[in-house]
Design goal:
Length: 356
């Protein structure tokens, strides 16, 4: 990592200068799509032509040549370009026209339309500062990936959102409610709206898959056994597991990827509006990593879940994330789309990506 640029921060979503209405756009060289009057000013993603339309334009290369040119231009397969266009389309579909622009000018109180927001959060343990003036927000249906070097406070942000920790200063909002000062019982009420997927799945070893997934339903609902079984089967099917095959198995009888999917099924058992993931692809092989990444995208696409994902897996992050927050030197060094991050010319960001 480059140490010479440590004082330069890229696109902190809460810059103190109120006259800079969109510092993210200023810091990111990637061009934004033009506003479309027909959509009330919302930017539309670029629309790809099919092969016939391409060939209909005189002088334009054959579709296959265009795809080859795309591969040469950015070093990635055309399929990844398609994923970027799909992700942009999902962002546009989920955009709330009444939500405040990101990033917004400095002002106290929750941002309109934000489901999760950290506002100027400071946190330390003893004389060690972990987070300093950290601000970012996630609007409904967005997936925010928090990345950074080990020990930069990524998992700490999840603990703040869960109200396991209180900031020394600043505020943490969940659906517009400041949770920083909530009591233990009040915090439990907020957590019922969240699902948590732990790094190692964190299943109960002595309990079957069925009992693991049913656990939050027994703890937080009054459902009878028939309804609990129906929901357990529904969630297992959602994560592409066969209920009749796995329900009676113990976690030790499952592969790592299957355990992770059971962890996701348990997290969504209560139909949460918020999902938190701590290194969801850690320790998994590439194929299983792809399965978990697609599952996170499926939750966003089909259920409209708002997600915060802590991860070191940049390839996975670039596939799933609506926006990426880079933690470095206790602060948000960069906040923007994966495309903006890839195009960013900040030395630290490029070193962090490692040539991705």
């Amino acid at each position: 990592m480059s140490g010479g640029d440590s004082d330069t921060r890229v696109t902190n979503p809460r810059l103190s200068d109120p006259d800079r209405s969109d510092p993210r756009g200023a810091a990111s060289p990637a061009a934004s799509p033009a506003p479309d009057p027909a959509t009330g000013g919302a930017a539309l993603p670029p629309q790809p032509r099919d092969g016939a339309s391409e060939r209909a334009h005189e002088g334009q290369p054959h579709d296959g040549d265009a795809r080859a040119g795309e591969r040469r231009a950015d070093g990635r397969a055309p399929a990844e370009g398609k994923e970027r266009r799909i992700r942009a389309s999902i962002r546009d579909a989920l955009r709330d026209p009444d939500a405040e622009a990101r990033p917004r000018a400095e002002d106290p109180g929750p941002a309109k339309g934000a489901i999760i927001e950290l506002e100027r959060v400071h946190l330390g343990f003893g004389d060690r500062t972990i987070l300093e003036d950290v601000s970012f927000l996630a609007q409904r249906g967005e997936t925010i990936a928090v990345v950074g070097e080990s020990g930069t406070g990524k998992s700490t942000t999840l603990k703040l959102i869960l109200r396991h920790l209180q900031p020394d200063s600043g505020r943490v909002y969940v659906d517009g409610e400041d949770i920083s000062g909530l009591s233990f019982s009040e915090a439990l009420r907020v957590r019922k709206r969240m699902g948590m997927v732990f790094q190692g799945a964190a299943l109960f070893d002595s309990m079957s898959v069925y009992e693991n997934v049913a656990y939050p339903l027994r703890e937080h609902t009054d459902y009878d056994e028939t309804e609990i079984e129906r929901r357990v089967r529904e969630k297992l099917e959602f994560v592409d597991l066969e209920p009749d095959r796995v329900m009676e198995q113990l976690p030790s009888e499952l592969s790592g990827g299957m355990r992770k999917r059971v962890g996701v099924a348990r997290a969504i058992a209560n139909d949460p509006q918020i999902m938190l993931y701590d290194e969801p692809t850690s320790g998994l092989d590439p194929l299983t990593t792809g399965t978990i990444t697609r599952l996170i995208m499926k939750l966003q696409r089909e259920l409209g879940v708002t997600s915060i994902v802590v991860s070191h897996d940049i390839r996975s992050v670039f596939r799933m994330a609506s926006y990426v927050a880079v933690l470095a030197d206790k602060r948000i060094r960069f906040f923007g789309t994966p495309e903006e991050m890839a195009a960013c010319d900040d030395r630290y960001i490029q070193d962090f990506l490692g040539g991705f």
